[in-house]
Amino acid sequence: MPREQPGTAPQPHPFRPDRTRRDEAPQFVLPLVARIERAAPPARTDALETAARAVLAILSDERALGDGPWAQAMRDWQDARIRKVVRRARGAEWRRAEALPGITVTGKSAEVRVYPPVPLDGWPKDLARLQVSGTDLDDPEPPLDPDPGTPVLWLNPEITMSAGKAMAQAGHGAQLAWWDLSVPERTAWRDAGFPLSVRTASASRWPELTAGGLPLVRDAGFTEIAPGSCTVVADHPALRPAPGA
């Protein structure tokens, strides 16, 4: 899917609020479950980064490609609106969630499990009973500056989101970057373990990021924020315009 270029008309987009053919297709959702134990919740930034890597993990998993057992669900999901919902689990809830087919991705303090897409009204029972609310997390210390050369998912500094909403938005940004990369670039990123950072952009830099030709996430406005809000810029080094372009 082509990314937006500065100065061009917006292209049909899976995250835009305006109605497209995607709305006529059966609607699916990609479930993500974050492990949030009461006594030891993960750091917010680590949870966002782990969720983004979980999305990349399922996009690149052999079970989700070709004739794999998850491939049709992945195709159906990507033909419609790209929806992701993050729920939380702890204790026995997490153990039941881990027993379902999916992929668990572990960060420094976070664990996020991603599952093959399901119909909007067809969640597995052990996931449907989990709560969406209660994913408000904090960073014990301010996150460090991203390492040079590492892909960065920049969050809009003017929008306040719950951790669960921000995890889904970071996943959207990672997915747009993945779609825009060439096969060799995808392979290199996957083989490196999908290094990435999630950071909130400074107010002064945000306009430059959104006008720089990088993939943009514009939320459809189903929850928390206004339709059409630009939430994330996916700044992967391979997608940056060449100097002088």
What would the keywords be for this entry?
245 residues, alpha+beta, five-stranded mixed sheet, four-stranded mixed sheet, 9 strands
Can you describe what's shown?
With 245 residues, this protein is of the alpha+beta class. It has seven helices and nine strands. The protein has helices at 44-60, 71-79, 91-98, 125-128, 163-180, 183-191, 206-210, and strands spanning 28-35, 84-89, 103-106, 111-114, 118-119, 152-155, 197-200, 216-218, 230-235. The strands form two sheets. Strands 1, 2, 3, 4 and 5 form a five-stranded mixed sheet that branches. Helix 1 packs parallel to helix 5 (163-180). The radius of gyration is 17 Å and the shape is globular.
Low-confidence stretches: 1-12
Fraction of residues in β-strands: 15-25%
Structural class: alpha+beta
- Whole-Å distance between the termini? 21 Å
Q: What is the N-to-C order of secondary-structure elements (H for helix, E for strand)?
A: EHHEHEEEHEHHEHEE
Helix content: 25-40%
pLDDT averaged residue by residue: 88
Q: Which sheet architecture does the biggest sheet show?
A: 5 strands, mixed
Shape: globular
User: How many strand segments?
Assistant: 9
Kindly provide the radius of gyration, computed on alpha-carbon positions and rounded to a whole number of angstroms: 17 Å
Helix count from the secondary structure assignment: 7
